[in-house]
Design goal:
The protein is of the alpha/beta class and 336 residues long. It has ten helices and 15 strands.
Length: 336
């Protein structure tokens, strides 16, 4: 997979590995902005309004299918766009929303030019895969590692536990619900295996392996502070000297690690892309070193894409997966 981003002072081209990709660079070098753009285009087919400098973004997959974004300015006038639409399928799709363009006349109109996968060497009509269909094939998870205070909107107050006070807490609560569904799904699969399979023990072991691995990893890491998962409960809960500890009572680093590993477990070994921006925040250096390995153990089918400036993340054999931001950037001014 390859990302091409144009706009601002620099253009970027980043060729990705199928398993692990680490974008490194100093603060302010553009790592987070680059991840934000890619996440937004793959997740919702739109870019954040504050990224007004971006001219184009193209995500090309190994099979040469791609998703593309282009910044179009209405200053060109609607008539010019109509002329371009005669030769360019992207502009024809823009014209399908011409009324919205007219309402914003005089302002920059930012629109995804293709929410479909398109075959670069074939006609536009050959491929018709929407973002929704993409998400049916690939899980896309974006993990926030910042423990900001939660905005107490009415919806949040109605839906959340009184212990949910930060963004990490909110993410944990949502994952708790998915975790219960995950276990229910395992139980259903177990019943099917028992009813239809000859090698029952072998299949059951394979079915339970990711969940057992997750619990063992958590117990190993959290055991250093005297905590272990309460395996008698369906929801995530911990024991420390026989005292119950909820996930909301964990430290920021423990919450963050739990969110990352639980998210990967819930991918259920499906093809997935996991985005993380500076996951080392609040994590002990030893946890940083083990993080990527644990993620890949829990789901060998996940492609990890993260930004970091911590050497700890790459210590455990991931140096060859690192791309320095300065090495994938093209200084347009240097070409003049």
């Amino acid at each position: 997979m390859k990302y091409q981003i144009c706009g601002g002072k620099f253009d970027f081209e980043w060729n990705l590995h199928p398993d692990v990709n680490i974008l490194a660079g100093i603060n302010g070098s553009g790592k987070s902005t680059m991840l934000d753009c890619i996440c937004a285009l793959l997740s919702v087919g739109a870019l954040p309004k504050e990224i007004s400098f971006l001219e184009s973004l193209r995500i090309t997959f190994d099979n040469q299918k791609y998703i593309s974004y282009e910044h179009i300015e209405v200053k060109d006038t609607i008539r010019n766009i109509e002329k371009k639409a005669q030769k360019d399928d992207k502009y024809r799709r823009v014209l399908s929303e011409i009324s919205e363009i007219k309402n914003d006349a005089g302002n920059d109109y930012r629109k995804i030019t293709s929410v479909r996968f398109e075959m670069g060497i074939a006609s536009f009509d050959d491929i018709n895969m929407t973002l929704h269909e993409l998400h049916e094939l690939i899980n896309i998870d974006v993990i926030s590692t910042f423990d900001n205070a939660l905005r107490q909107s009415e919806a949040v107050r109605k839906l959340s536990d009184e212990n949910v006070k930060t963004e990490l807490d909110w993410n944990i609560e949502k994952l708790q619900k998915r975790y219960l569904d995950y276990q229910l799904n395992i139980s259903k699969k177990k019943d099917v295996i028992i009813e239809n399979s000859e090698n029952i023990k072998e299949y059951l072991a394979l079915l339970k392996k990711p969940h057992s691995l997750f619990m063992n990893i958590i117990d190993t890491l959290f055991g250093e502070t005297g905590k272990k998962l309460d395996r008698d409960k369906n929801e995530i809960s911990f024991l420390s000297d026989k005292n119950e500890i909820t996930p909301f009572q964990l430290s920021s680093g423990e919450k963050q690690l739990l969110i990352i590993l639980l998210t990967v477990l819930l991918q259920d070994n499906n093809q997935s892309i996991l985005f993380m921006d500076e996951p080392e925040i609040s994590l002990h250096i030893e946890w940083q070193k083990k993080l990527i390995g644990f993620i890949r153990d829990l789901n060998p089918n996940v492609q990890v894409i993260l930004a970091t400036h911590s050497p700890g993340i790459i210590m455990d054999g991931w140096l060859d997966k690192v791309s320095e931001i300065r090495d994938i950037v093209i200084d347009k001014n240097s070409e003049k």
